[in-house]
Amino acid sequence: MKLEELRFGTELLKRGFASMQKGGVIMDVVNAEQATIAERSGAVAVMSLERVPSDIRKQGGVARMADPEKVQEIIDAVSIPVMGKVRIGHFVEAQVLEVLGVDMIDESEVLTPADEEYHIDKKLFKVPFVCGARNLGEALRRINEGAAMIRTKGEAGTGNVVEAVRHMRAIMGDIRKVQGMDEQERISYARSIEAPAELVIECATRGRLPVVNFSAGGIATPSDAAMMMQLGADGVFVGSGIFKSSNPEKMAKAIVEAVNHYSDAKVIAKVSTGLGDAMPGLDVHTLRADEVLQTRGR
Amino acid sequence: MDVKIGVLALQGDVSEHIDAFSAALAGRGCGKASTVVEVRNPVDLDGCSALALPGGESTTISRLIERNGLYEPIRTFKGGIFATCAGMVLMATDAADPRIHTLGLMDMTVDRNAFGRQKESFEADIPVIGLDGGPFHAIFIRAPVVTAAGAGVHVLATLDRGIVAAEKGRYMALAFHPELGGDLRLHERFLKNLGI
Asked: Which residues, at least 6 apart from A105, have a Cβ–Cβ distance to it below 8 Å?
């Protein structure tokens, strides 16, 4: 097989990579030790970042891509895929992560946006991207920019699942809505949500987003994770929920188990027993407007 | 003939396998009552003529096979097994990784992520021995290869890094993902081998 006959970085390879994550838990980690614990606990991939969202909230300041040394350390520590977060619109941070060999890039509202007008032109990259979304319009705009995977945003670092639920219900509800429309209505609806008509039509025909859709932002317990799966998520991201709990390894394993058996309440009851304390939670209604992360990058 | 096929549904691209096998069964002229079902527990294997082991994370799937008590039931399963990517790793005797308890159903040694990370994932047209209709458009995603194959393992396709498709009786193991590309010739060949 000659090298020039191979094709790299195609849409099929990017979306295919995301499909391989389905039914899995992707865990936030800040160092090699946490990455090893995540892998041992059954994570399908780890998300490398400098600080977990709850620490970003507490410490404030500009949150950026992790130090390449840290990312490399995590890549070297595990055999599962390693993802990395970049600031919204920061295409050079993305270039850096691609060179480092990260398997997927998360253009994330959890970090401080670098561009308030434009997202990264993700079609220019060989590495696939995941992006956050709160509703069908946001999801389809990101897919149109080249995102190979969507995660509902939720409200990261709160340990409060309410926003994750709101966003998953919004996307699923919007899809059910377009399924009941005729072609003309779909085109008009696409305009109203500022999304490409052909993607709206594809959602209506397939009854789902054209790419894998995970849930994120506030999942802190096995029951939270299983609820998101029952609401239609293809898998879950857990950020602060694992390494801010009192027994991270036990919590990580329990969440993996709950995602695998998401419709079996007996299993969820069993794995939820004796876990110790979940991460401390925040009431999202007490957040000031500038503390809300989900409104970044619409 | 009505046929039931199972897809191991613990983690990975399960729905893609279900869709591909549903289409392949129709292509083979199987009866309208033919089904493709999700396999999560041993009881789900009852009545299945074949089982697909999907792509996904082999470490995760291996752990979940044991957790769900599926290790022995799959090992002793009497039907065909169609394994892609992570599935190929599980079919081997040796994955050179203590975290993966392989099923050992095909005498072969595999090298995981043999081509590198996701940015080295690729599509290529590869010749497959005995497959009519020209090269197969194969999708390799963080793919493994077989570095050594023993008795009874019939090699179907090889790239410079190693073997990427192999058969042994009622088993077929592929390093790539025919369930993603829309070309069902390998699915149909697998079914034909089983007399379906």
From this structure: A83, A84, A85, A86, A94, A97, A98, A125, A127, A128, A129, A130
